[in-house]
């Protein structure tokens, strides 16, 4: 059995479906407090999807795209969460992780979560650098993805195979 004493990058998905602030719980534990919830207190609700938005060019084998973010508009709305550190005129360095942020949505079921993510992706604007927004839009519009007919080889299949 493996135990990780760190947050996983997907922890916002767990937070969205459980309603539990995992970061807050971890900080309280680090401060010597007892965990404020028991396993029986955890009830999962709905569906959540996370898209990691990176400064990379999907059309050029995800080549890093450092530079200045000239404009940034984050998607609003209920069930939409953006965890990010960037801002308008922020400089994306070529020397560090290219993560711009994590776009996370929640909805009552998978179909509605996909629709909410599609809308959030269409409202997300990053100007001045290339990003993985278009890649995520293609995946979320793919009929195999929508139907849940995916496996670990999903991205290796040519686009025309899935249309």
Protein architecture, described:
By secondary structure, the chain is an alpha+beta fold. It folds into two domains: 1-45, no CATH class; 46-162, D-amino Acid Aminotransferase, Chain A, domain 1, CATH 3.30.470. 30% of the residues lie in helices and 22% in strands. The chain has six helices and nine strands, in the order H-H-E-E-E-E-E-E-E-E-H-E-H-H-H. A three-stranded antiparallel β-sheet has the order 1-8-6. A two-stranded antiparallel ribbon has the order 2-3. A two-stranded antiparallel sheet has the order 4-7. Helix 3 packs antiparallel against helix 4 (133-141). The longest helix has 14 residues, at 110-123. The model has no long low-confidence stretch (mean pLDDT 92).
Care to give the gist of this entry?
Helices cover 30% and strands 22% of the residues.
* Cα separation of the termini: 41 Å
Q: Tell me about the biggest sheet?
A: 3 strands, antiparallel
Provide the helix percentage. Answer: 25-40%
Q: What is the total number of structural domains?
A: 2
Number of strands: 9
CATH fold topology of the largest domain: D-amino Acid Aminotransferase, Chain A, domain 1
Strands side by side in the biggest sheet: 1-8-6
Give the C-alpha Rg.
18 Å
Mean pLDDT: 92
Unreliable stretches covering 5 or more consecutive residues:
none
């Amino acid at each position: 059995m493996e135990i990780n004493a760190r947050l996983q990058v997907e922890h916002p998905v767990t937070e969205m479906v459980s309603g539990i602030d995992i970061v807050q719980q971890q900080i309280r534990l680090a401060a010597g407090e007892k965990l404020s919830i028991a396993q029986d207190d955890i009830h999962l609700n709905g569906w959540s999807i996370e898209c990691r938005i990176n400064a990379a060019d999907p059309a050029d084998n995800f080549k890093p795209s450092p530079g200045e973010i000239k404009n940034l508009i984050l998607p609003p709305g209920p069930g939409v969460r953006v965890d990010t550190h960037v801002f308008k005129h922020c400089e994306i360095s070529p020397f560090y992780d290219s993560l711009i942020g994590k776009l996370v949505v929640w909805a009552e079921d998978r179909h509605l979560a996909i629709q909410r993510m599609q809308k959030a992706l269409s409202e997300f604007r990053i100007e001045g650098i290339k990003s993985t927004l278009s890649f995520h839009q293609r995946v979320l519009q793919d009929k195999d993805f929508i139907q849940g007919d995916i496996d670990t080889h999903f991205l290796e299949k040519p686009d025309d195979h899935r249309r």
